[in-house]
Write a sequence for this structure.
């Protein structure tokens, strides 16, 4: 087996501490070597807690470490592009949390830097590595539900804490950036198309100024219509449903897929309203964050294709840009 790649973690953000770092430490291809924070004491505490060998009091100090091969960037959204560029300029590959940027135009700046430095940057859409989603793509392509005609999605939680970065408009907070992006990327993945136009209604919190409730309609060139709702101030809920001419697929926990129990999808032939034609497919326990890390390491070692290319990330941002514009104008917006 090849020697593991050495990873450095930018910041002590909760998503890293609780989800991503432990998953990476369960991956044979990854050696989590360092963690950096603007506060050395805080970085040292997390390093001790998670048995990470090195702690740094600045991101730049960690970037200067020649032993680090790959950097994980879970910083607030407005820092995704500038800090990712710094890491690439320092010779590191980067796994950057979603959204890759705040606009599609901003995301395009990463392309030149990646090309010039020869370093890979991948947006951390861990769902694209999950076996349940790979199966949904396979089923839809095979015609298991007939012709796909409509998609419905919802992703919501309740958090109105003004001290939470997701509720800070000036640094890229709000529901569309945080969770609406998942609804967009999975629909694009399954249809293998880009939406041609979108319409949206967006409600902004009058105090926080972030989008707290958004509903959107996306139309794809094949005629598939995708309707979705995302919210940072609703009951916790997530679901994706794919409706075909002869059946449907429901993804039970599409985005925060559990790593301690099997995932399930439901396939129904629609023979009645009571589930007589319902079949359940169950997937072995897996950690989508581990799978994501393994995949990026393979890409780096084998010089293979990236699961979520920069071109794909830019396309996702174009849809997000269009959703915000449609919500503002009240008009259909071409993507």
């Amino acid at each position: 087996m090849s020697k593991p790649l050495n990873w450095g973690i930018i910041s002590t953000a909760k998503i890293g501490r609780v989800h991503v770092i432990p998953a990476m430490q369960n991956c044979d291809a990854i050696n989590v070597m360092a963690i950096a924070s603007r506060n050395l004491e805080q970085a040292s505490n997390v390093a001790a807690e998670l048995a990470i060998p090195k702690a740094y009091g600045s991101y730049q100090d960690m970037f200067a470490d020649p032993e680090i091969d790959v950097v994980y960037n879970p910083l607030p959204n407005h820092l995704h592009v500038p800090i990712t560029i710094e890491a690439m300029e320092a010779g590191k590959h980067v796994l950057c949390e979603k959204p890759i940027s705040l606009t599609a135009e901003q995301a395009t700046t990463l392309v030149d830097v990646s090309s010039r430095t020869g370093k890979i940057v991948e947006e951390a859409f861990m769902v694209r590595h999950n076996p349940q989603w790979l199966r949904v793509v396979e089923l839809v392509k095979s015609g298991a539900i007939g012709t796909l005609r409509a998609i419905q999605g919802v992703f919501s939680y309740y958090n109105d804490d003004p001290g939470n970065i997701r509720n800070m408009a000036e640094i890229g907070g709000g529901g569309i950036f945080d969770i609406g992006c998942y609804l967009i990327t999975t629909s694009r993945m399954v249809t293998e198309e880009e939406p041609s136009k979108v319409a949206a209604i967006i409600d902004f919190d009058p105090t926080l100024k972030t989008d707290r409730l958004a509903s959107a309609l996306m139309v794809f060139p094949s005629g598939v219509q995708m309707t979705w709702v995302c919210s940072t101030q609703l009951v916790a809920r997530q679901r994706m449903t794919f409706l075909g001419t002869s059946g449907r697929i429901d993804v039970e926990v599409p985005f925060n897929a559990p790593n301690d129990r099997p995932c399930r999808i439901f396939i129904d032939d629609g023979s009645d309203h009571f589930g007589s034609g319902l079949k359940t497919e169950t997937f072995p326990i897996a950690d989508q964050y581990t799978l994501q890390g393994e995949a990026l390491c393979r890409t780096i070692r084998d010089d293979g294709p990236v699961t979520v290319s920069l071109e794909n990330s830019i396309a996702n941002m174009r849809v997000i840009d269009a959703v915000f514009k449609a919500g503002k104008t009240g008009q259909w917006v071409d993507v």
